[in-house]
Amino acid sequence: MTGSNIFKGMVAGFVATVVLSALMVTKSMMGLMPELDVIAMLSKMMGGSSATMAWIAHFMIGTVVLGGLFAWLDPYLPGKRHWLKGIAFGIGAWLLMMVAVMPMAGAGLFGMNFGIMAPGMTMVLHIIFGAVLGAVYGAERPEVAHRLQIAPR
Predict the structure, then answer these.
(1) What are 94-150's pLDDT values in tens digits?
(2) What is the largest CA-CA distance in the chain?
(3) How far is CA 67 from CA 13, 15, 36, 133, in A?
(4) How confident is the model at residue 153 (pLDDT cuts 50, 70, 90)?
(5) What is the mean pLDDT of residues 25-30?
(6) Cβ contacts of residue 109 below 8 Å, gap of 6+?
(7) What are the CA-CA distances from residue 94 to residues 39, 62, 142, 147 (Å)?
(8) Average pLDDT score, the chain
(9) Per-residue CA distances from 151 to 27, 75, 148 (Å)
(10) What is the DSSP string of 18-64?
């Protein structure tokens, strides 16, 4: 793992967050599941801060946290192609959101307070996020990081 890979992960995270954000805005403009408003949820979780602060938090999570974490976990994720690793990572991030973030936001486990479509809609968005994250990261040609190996005793 190198610092340059972490930076490349953050660049990929930023691009994937831009794509995800465009899909979120499009979903909102189409009137699809208006109750599933991630920015409003973030704003509420941040103590009722402005939508601007929630958007900044959204981009920080996608860029720094998820982008950096993807670069760090890359050698351990299943698959040979980065976009497939990204999808696996996106599904993991979705699962974490469903069992931790959604209940903290008052949406219930798997966001079921928003209805049965919430888990499916958010999973599709996370799969797209992950595929873009992995594809961009792979296109940046990260340095090969080898898995930690435990020396035999």
Answers:
(1) 999 999 989 988 889 999 998 899 999 999 999 999 999 999 999 998 887 665 545
(2) 61
(3) 4, 10, 23, 7
(4) low
(5) 91
(6) 98, 99, 102, 103
(7) 16, 12, 24, 25
(8) 90
(9) 51, 18, 9
(10) HHHHHHHHHHHHHTSSTT--HHHHHHHHTTS--HHHHHHHHHHIIII
- Residue partners of 10: CB distance under 8 A and separation at least 6: 63, 64, 67, 68, 71
Residue 133 falls in which region: left (phi positive, over 0), alpha (psi -120 to 50) or beta: alpha
Mean pLDDT of 74-102: 95
Contact indicator for 111, 118 with CB cutoff of 8 Å: yes
Amino acid at residue number 61: I
Closest CA to 114 of 52, 46, 27: 27
pTM of the complete model: 0.87
Structure tokens at 64: 């720094």
Q: How far apart are CA 6 and CA 73, in angstroms?
A: 10
